[in-house]
């Protein structure tokens, strides 16, 4: 009841603000403030920054949950976090890191960079871009508020229905999981669709598909995977919601349902999800390695086709997560071959990165260090993935710490190190200041050493028989020293992350102002000021080849040739409706968690429909930036 009252008061407060029910002078002052500007922005660069900040916030939360688990496992028979508490930590750590940290951090970089790389002034649908961010944020907050209101989900991040139905998880935790991920997933789906349309329709003149930078290509394929993979998860979550809230029996075996249906639906999404978060990291590696080797990316065309093949094969391997379910030898064999096949295009990328560095003038900036550290780390994760692709071997490895080590080498050693490389590489373009290189190198070395010390021993823990998802283990069976090493390793990752945070704080206080092209870059984003102006490009650039900006510099040009005369630029107006709609979904989610009385859930949906109605009749068609304003701004930048 207390939660209900808080939500009603909050909804009324927001309604009063939006309708001018308070002091109008104060409201007008607030609308001119920076806070209102960021809350209502539809600028892809600001939305990218908000995605990045939100994702990093959830990354810290997920990291704290992981530290608590390692503290519990530092010695056998520990009783620090046991039973249901440990299950909640485990579930929320995996869910937070996959859905609320890795994806928004990548979406932040994609939002900030892709329109600039293709020579566009914005994404295709600025309003939907804002809506996608706020829906993600609403879903993430709803999920994490489960710690305070009723208990966090406790059935594992995969939420298998043998554990997630009412009989086995009677509290509201799984309801938060189901509703939070549905709301967040709608935002992700909107974002993926937006990027697809942006890349197809908004490329600058001359920017053919085979002239697009690799980060744009990998993000484009990743967005296509989102478009086809997320509906499977959405359907599965919807069915689970009906089972839990309304007494349906889709997954209850005793009532004629099947828990294997959930596993299929989850992994039809779940394995493409791995490529959704690793492909953009591959793109970051390609940009960073090419730039800091001062060489064109080796085998660009083969990299493009390898990316497309990975996206295609990503939907043909999900059963390797289900080898022990009992689907039979034919099914297991087909998916084993498909799983091993996907290693081929991935291997192409690794060799192309190595050949790009071969003979290059390598500069070991922080971004390049993360890229170089990424390669052997990810290759180790890929090798253990091929081991897991063999059904007879998988029968031994499954549900052991060997699997935990494998996917952390892929997702942390791959995705997270890729994100850090991208953060150091594009930070000047996003914020206009240079991160400190000394602190950056401290971040890299402590994080890399800590990572390997944490997860490399876990391969042997798995081989020695330690099952995953357990909160204790026997003494004197050879597991103590490896668990101790694994926990000590987290200290290195904590120090590295703190160094990154300190670097950010120092940079904002007294960081060096970034020039337009601090790395001697090769792609279009480095041809404009740092940070990019509101309109990105005063005149759309004319692209005349791959690595368009580097090619123009080689020809002696100091700016990109223009594809149009300088003229009035149309810009979309900011809008509070995405925020209002997301609040509606948030209220609805909380309402449906409160079982028995769905009035609050219905109120939230009413808010959503009111916001949709307001959008339908919104007569604001944006504004224009005139040529004289652009010229004055450019004089200010040059001065």
From TrEMBL:
Topology of this chain in the membrane: Multi-pass membrane protein
- Residue ranges annotated for the Cytochrome oxidase subunit I profile domain, each copy included: 30-544
Classification via Pfam families: COX1
* Top-level taxon in the UniProt lineage: Bacteria
The record's EC number reads: 7.1.1.9
**Chief location category:** membrane
Query: What does the UniProt entry say about where the protein is found?
Result: Cell membrane; Membrane
Catalytic activity reads: 4 Fe(II)-[cytochrome c] + O2 + 8 H(+)(in) = 4 Fe(III)-[cytochrome c] + 2 H2O + 4 H(+)(out)
State the PROSITE patterns in the record: COX1 (PS50855), COX1_CUB (PS00077)
Gene3D superfamilies in UniProt: 1.10.287.70, Cytochrome c oxidase-like, subunit I domain
Q: Which UniProt keywords apply?
A: Cell membrane, Copper, Electron transport, Heme, Iron, Membrane, Metal-binding, Respiratory chain, Translocase, Transmembrane, Transmembrane helix, Transport
Q: Give the enzyme's main class according to its UniProt record, as a single word.
A: translocase
Question: SUPFAM superfamilies under this entry?
Answer: Cytochrome c oxidase subunit I-like
Residue stretches spanning the membrane: 6-23, 49-69, 89-114, 126-149, 176-202, 214-242, 265-285, 297-321, 333-355, 367-390, 402-427, 439-464, 484-506, 576-594, 600-617
Which pathway does the record list? Energy metabolism; oxidative phosphorylation
| Sequence similarity | Belongs to the heme-copper respiratory oxidase family.
NCBIfam families under this entry? Answer: CtaD_CoxA
According to its UniProt entry, the function of this protein is described as: Cytochrome c oxidase is the component of the respiratory chain that catalyzes the reduction of oxygen to water. Subunits 1-3 form the functional core of the enzyme complex. CO I is the catalytic subunit of the enzyme. Electrons originating in cytochrome c are transferred via the copper A center of subunit 2 and heme A of subunit 1 to the bimetallic center formed by heme A3 and copper B.
Q: What is this protein called?
A: Cytochrome c oxidase subunit 1
Lineage of the species this protein comes from: Bacteria, Bacillati, Bacillota, Bacilli, Bacillales
């Amino acid at each position: 009841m207390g939660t209900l009252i808080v939500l009603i008061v909050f909804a009324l407060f927001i309604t009063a603000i939006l309708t001018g029910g308070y002091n109008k002078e104060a409201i007008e002052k607030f609308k001119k403030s920076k806070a209102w500007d960021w809350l209502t922005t539809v600028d892809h660069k600001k939305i990218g920054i908000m995605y990045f900040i939100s994702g990093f916030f959830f990354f810290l939360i997920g990291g704290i949950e992981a530290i608590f688990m390692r503290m519990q496992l530092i010695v056998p028979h520990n009783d620090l976090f046991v039973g249901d508490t440990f299950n909640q930590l485990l579930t929320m750590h995996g869910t937070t890191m996959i859905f609320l940290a890795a994806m928004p951090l990548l979406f932040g970089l994609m939002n900030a960079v892709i329109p600039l790389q293709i020579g566009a002034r914005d994404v295709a649908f600025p309003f939907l871009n804002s809506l996608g961010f706020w829906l993600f944020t609403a879903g993430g907050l709803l999920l994490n508020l489960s710690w305070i209101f009723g208990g966090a989900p406790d059935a594992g991040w995969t939420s298998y229905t043998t554990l997630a139905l009412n009989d086995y998880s009677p509290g509201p935790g799984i309801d938060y999981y189901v509703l939070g991920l549905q709301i967040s997933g709608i935002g992700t789906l909107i974002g993926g669709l937006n990027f697809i349309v942006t890349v197809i329709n908004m490329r600058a003149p001359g920017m053919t598909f085979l002239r697009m930078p690799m980060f744009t290509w990998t993000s484009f394929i990743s967005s296509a995977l989102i478009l086809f993979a997320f509906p499977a998860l959405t359907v599965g979550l919807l069915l689970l919601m009906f089972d839990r809230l309304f007494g349906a029996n889709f997954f209850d075996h005793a009532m004629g349902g099947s828990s294997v249906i959930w596993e299929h639906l989850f992994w039809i999404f779940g394995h493409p999800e791995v490529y959704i978060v690793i492909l953009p990291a591959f793109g970051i590696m390609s940009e960073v390695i090419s730039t800091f080797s001062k060489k064109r990316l080796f085998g660009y065309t083969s990299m493009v086709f390898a990316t497309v093949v990975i996206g295609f094969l990503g939907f043909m391997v999900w059963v390797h997560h289900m080898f022990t379910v009992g689907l039979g030898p034919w099914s297991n064999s087909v998916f084993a071959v498909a799983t091993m096949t996907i290693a081929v295009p991935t291997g192409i990328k690794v060799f192309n990165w190595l050949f790009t560095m071969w003979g290059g003038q390598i500069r070991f900036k922080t971004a390049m260090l993360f890229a170089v550290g990424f390669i052997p780390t990810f290759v180790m994760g890929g090798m253990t993935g091929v081991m897991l692709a063999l059904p007879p071997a998988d029968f031994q490895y499954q549900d052991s710490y060997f699997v935990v080590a494998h996917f952390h080498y892929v997702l942390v050693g791959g995705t997270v190190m890729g994100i850090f490389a991208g953060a150091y590489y594009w930070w000047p373009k996003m914020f206009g200041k240079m991160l400190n290189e000394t602190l950056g190198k401290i971040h890299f070395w402590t994080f890399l050493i800590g990572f390997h010390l944490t997860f490399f021993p876990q391969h042997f823990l798995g081989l020695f028989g330690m099952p995953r998802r357990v909160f204790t283990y026997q003494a004197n069976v050879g597991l103590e020293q490896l668990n101790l090493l694994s926990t000590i390793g987290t200290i290195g990752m904590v120090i590295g992350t703190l160094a990154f945070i300190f670097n950010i704080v120092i940079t904002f206080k007294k960081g060096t102002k970034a020039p337009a092209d601090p790395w001697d870059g090769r792609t279009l984003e480095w041809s404009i000021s740092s940070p990019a102006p509101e309109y990105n490009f005063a005149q759309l650039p004319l692209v005349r080849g791959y690595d368009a900006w580097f090619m123009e510099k080689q020809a002696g040009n100091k700016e990109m040739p223009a594809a149009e005369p300088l003229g009035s630029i149309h810009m979309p107006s900011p809008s509070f409706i995405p925020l209002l709609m997301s609040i509606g979904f948030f209220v609805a989610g909380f309402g449906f968690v409160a079982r028995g009385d769905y009035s609050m859930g219905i109120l939230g949906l009413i808010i959503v429909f009111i916001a949709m109605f307001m959008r339908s009749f919104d007569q604001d068609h944006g504004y224009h930036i005139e040529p004289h304003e652009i010229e004055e701004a450019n004089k200010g930048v040059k001065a």
